[in-house]
Design brief:
The complex is a heterodimer of chains A (177) and B (544). Chain A has eight helices and one strand, in the order ααααααααβ. Chain A is an all-alpha fold. Chain B has a single domain (36-543), classed as 3-Layer(bba) Sandwich (FAD/NAD(P)-binding domain), CATH 3.50.50. Helices cover 28% and strands 21% of the residues of chain B. In chain B, the strands form eight sheets. A six-stranded parallel sheet of chain B has the order 2-11-5-4-15-26, with helices on one face. A four-stranded mixed sheet of chain B has the order 3-14-13-12. In chain B, strand 21 (399-402) and strand 22 form a beta hairpin. In chain B, 62% of the residues are buried. The chains are: A mainly alpha (177), B alpha/beta (544). Chain A: It comes from Thalassolituus pacificus.
Chain lengths: 177, 544
Amino acid sequence: MFNTSRRGFLQLSASSAAALTVGASLASLSGCSKVPVANGYKQLRAGDIEFLSALAPVILNKSYPGTLADAAPERLTKALDTLIGTLQEYSRGQLMQLFDVMQVAPIRSVMGAQWGSWSDASAEQIEGFLQDWKTSSLQLKRMGYGSLCKLLTMCWYSQPETFVSTGYPGAPKKIPA
Amino acid sequence: MQNNNQRQPDIPVVAGISDPILDGIANGWNVRESTEVADGSVVEADVIIIGTGAGGGTTAEILAKAGLKVLMLEEGPLKSTNDFRMDEREAYRDLYQESAGRMSKDGAMSILQGRCVGGTTVINWTSSFRTPEPTLNYWSEEFGVEGFSSADMAPWFETMEQRLNVAPWQVQPNENNSVLARGATKLGVDWHVIPRNVSGCWNLGYCGTGCPTNAKQSMLVTTIPAALDNHSELVYSARAERLIMEGRKVLGVEVTALGRDYQPSGKSFVAKAPHVIMACGAINGPALLLRSKAPDPHKRIGKRTFFHPTTFCFAEFEQVIDPYYGAPQSIYSDHFQWLEVSGKVGYKLEVPPLQPGLTSVLLLGHGAQHFDDISKLPNLHAMIALLRDGFHPDSEGGSIELADDGTPIIDYEINDYLWDGVIRSWLTMAEIQFAAGAKAVRASHVDSPWFHSWEEAKAGISQLEFRSNAFTAGSAHCMGGLTMGEDQSRCLVDSHGKYHHLDNLYVFDGSAFPTSIGANPQLSIYGMACKQANKLLETIKASA
């Protein structure tokens, strides 16, 4: 039983790989990957920041923006920028390719995100997009979902200002000798 | 947002702790940041050790005390006691490979691995087990490994246990660990206290962010200082880029100097020595040999890479667990580990510490459900099962490949053989958690709801669907990739750790393991490196 379904996944995953590869090369043809990084960032471009900032309130739910308020988007995207900068080439490349695809409306639409720009999407639309990726039979969508959620939650819940939302009392205080 | 946020548990202030690394440097240790080494220069020594984790640290002390000038090269930065402030952000950025975001090629496995002076020993959770006897026997029978029987290894383990103060934890386990002991006892599942390599442990719970009290007997505070006290040199932020080879000899190592941002600084130098020891781990070690185009007639470099794929099961309790405080791992069970040596996959049960950043990743998912889960953090417990991979024809492990820029790509698949173990391990953990009094239990799979009874969990977990990237497969143990053994068609290093196809290259670390260990691997690496470094010393003395 598993064998059948596993083979099914592998086939779908090959076709989705093709879709994403075509998407990524279209994105690069359209000049997307040549977009310069945003001011003050080392990896992320303005469009990536818009994308991640749109996902944040949906992924992080009631903990976001929390006591960080207006400072939350920048704190989160700066932390993501640093983390992504330390990923090795393959993982970073995959992630940046995903970001590329999310920038170009027609390709994005094929991947399940039909709106004009990320800041126009409603929370319900983004929730639907995430649910689709989470349960998709396409491995690349599941991988995208998993990676985005892991990166955002890791960067967010390690910020001391969010401890209040999890009930974590915090680490012992360290006074260096 | 209101959850327990006013609670102020009685936790100590950590103060009055010295920093032995800063003291040592002030007293004249030969320690340099790579960018201080003149661009294009040659640094010479008697022995080069690449990597300063369990294998490299152990080896450095032994060779340095014997009078050899050892040059230790470490890719990661030098961070020490005063830097260890129990802050996940700083720790992941400074002490972990890829900021703790290291993943397998398909993103389905998250890998925690150290990247700093002292390697993973700086950030591990201190569990110290001898290599299990069935594992050693399997290596001998299947790979022709010689001199690795339990009796052969016992004195080496004993030496390292004494060196690193390994002893069963004497203090009451924290509540997170007590759940495992309590539930297992109720079910007649045997469990034991974990031996830890600590000295004067404060029982804080922050082993994973670098020990703030010098209690953990990592390489950083034990063997590396001992080597530096004995005329050795440490260059950190120094990535071994390529081995320089001529015929069957390694002449030296091309080293890239990394800047403070952990990126190549543009500077490089060459390290030269008559003997080169690789102890740079099961991912970077094979990648270094692949980049170097080292001789490999049977194409074995980077094959048989093992991870102890680790499954997670969460439980919610009425009482406060505070799973982030107290010695992170003090109780284990091997009840399900050796039911069969080479049949269905066996697993070791332990618990992980739950600091919020890491926990948020392990819980999986997003939105209201994820927030609901993580906002219960003080009342959460988690259990882990470490699957013993590499003992079955359907568990040949993963492989290490190279990206265009020469960095490693980790290919590892959770196949049907392992998935069977994943399901069984979730069932085991859920049953133990309910027996220990859990209110609700949830397997770390995106489809898993919270189950409210063992019966409900039993039915529900069996139905969870296999989809890669839909469940947490973690790893903190990277092993294999440069298999040790005498059968040259399958193995790359001999039983003394010497690379079969080169005369003066040695591999003294977990990458030489022919299978996974079936236990947290640090003591396996210490014992093996101790034995092999002493053997190498004999060889060097004999030829002098």
